[in-house]
Design brief:
Elements lengths: L7 H7 L5 H12 L7 H22 L6 E2 L1 E4 L6 H10 L2 H9 L1 H11 L16 H30 L14 H7 L4 E4 L33 H21 L4 H4 L5 H7 L2 H14 L10 H12 L11 H4 L20 H4 L5
Parallel strand pairs: 2-3
Antiparallel strand pairs: 1-2
């Protein structure tokens, strides 16, 4: 919307159009008082006094819209756009609208006059007499014309194209008092200024620079593969160097015989070799001696233990006695399971 269209005085006077039906009702209550003796004369007086003053005012000195009942804005306090609006109220089309505006009101008055007796029981002005009733009807019809003429003039000014309004010359402040009709005390400000009010702009959210992530240097795949291969070779060599005779470990005998055949010195040498190949900080890694001891304890064997038929051991032993029907709670873990790379 153009700034000049937001002028509050235009919209305040445009809203006066809503009061026209109220003034017509009040005119009807005035006509309902008493019995008409000279209907034609009464209608002539009501039309002449109710239409002509407002019509003459709009044709000669239009209503000064920058005013309210009892107050008027000083011409020196008017802005350029407001003075352009006053120039538009002096245009010929506004005067033409002033000539046509009373026509519908006069038609309504002619329709209500013969029906006014129906409101005789409703009028509060019964004690005023017929003359008082006609005076109330005339004043009400005058106000109906006034509140119809001014909004129609405002509508015609609002219909001005936006491209035309900047070209309209502002009205001279010295001629406003002589060329417009105003009544009331001149003041510097009445209503707030909405024409030059700036629309608040929504601030765009500031862009926050996210911190750059820490750069992690990529590890070469070839280097990792070389370290893994070297560690695997060291572990394999350490296991191969451990010469544990498997054929003696699976012979029938007691758990003491199994522990005797395991060379403790060889296991120690294997442990040192594995410890050198693995990360030295990993101190929690169990030794091969712990593996053998845990395997014997977990197996739950007794003194009359006889090994089951085991395919992993079969190819390494010639002197093995088998008991297929033996009922053992659990099979003996083979050394091959402990050292899977022995073969």
């Amino acid at each position: 919307m153009a700034p000049w269209r937001r002028d509050p005085y235009l919209w305040v006077h445009l809203a006066g159009l809503a009061t026209v039906p109220l003034w017509i009702d009040l005119c009807l209550l005035g006509l309902a008082v008493g019995n008409p003796t000279l209907p034609e004369l009464e209608l002539g007086v009501i039309v002449a006094l109710g239409v002509l003053p407002v019509l003459v005012m709009q044709l000669r000195q239009p209503f000064y819209i920058f005013s309210l009942p009892g107050l008027a804005l000083k011409p020196a306090a008017l802005q350029d756009d407001q003075r352009r609006l006053l120039s538009q109220f002096r245009r010929w089309r506004v005067r033409l609208g002033a000539l046509l505006a009373p026509v519908p009101l006069v038609w309504v008055l002619l329709k209500l006059y013969p029906l006014a007796f129906l409101a005789r029981d409703l009028t509060p002005f019964g004690d005023w007499g017929r003359l008082g009733g006609v005076a109330i009807a005339t004043l009400s019809f005058l106000m109906a014309n006034l509140f119809l003429q001014i909004p129609i003039a405002v509508l015609q000014v609002l219909a001005t194209p936006d491209r035309v309004m900047p070209k309209v010359p502002p009205y001279s402040p010295e001629n406003i008092a002589a060329d417009f009709t105003w009544m009331g005390l001149a003041v510097g400000k009445i209503l707030p200024d909405l024409m030059n009010r700036q629309t608040p702009e929504v601030a765009a959210p500031s862009v926050v620079d996210a911190p750059n992530p820490h750069h992690v240097a990529p590890v070469e795949v070839s280097a990792v593969e070389e370290l893994s291969a070297e560690a695997a070779d060291n572990v394999a060599e350490a296991i191969v160097d451990t010469e544990v005779p498997l054929e003696h470990t699976v012979e029938a005998g007691t758990t003491e015989d199994l522990a005797t055949h395991v060379n403790t010195s060889d296991l120690s040498a294997s442990s040192e070799a594995i410890a050198d190949a693995v990360d030295p900080e990993d101190s929690e890694c169990p030794s091969p001696e712990d593996f053998v001891t845990d395997a014997i304890v977990d197996s739950g064997v007794t003194d009359d233990y006889r090994p089951l038929r085991h395919p992993e051991v079969e190819e390494f032993s010639d002197d093995v006695s088998y008991r297929d029907d033996a009922d053992y709670p659990q099979s003996l873990p083979a050394i091959a399971d402990i050292y899977p790379n022995i073969r």
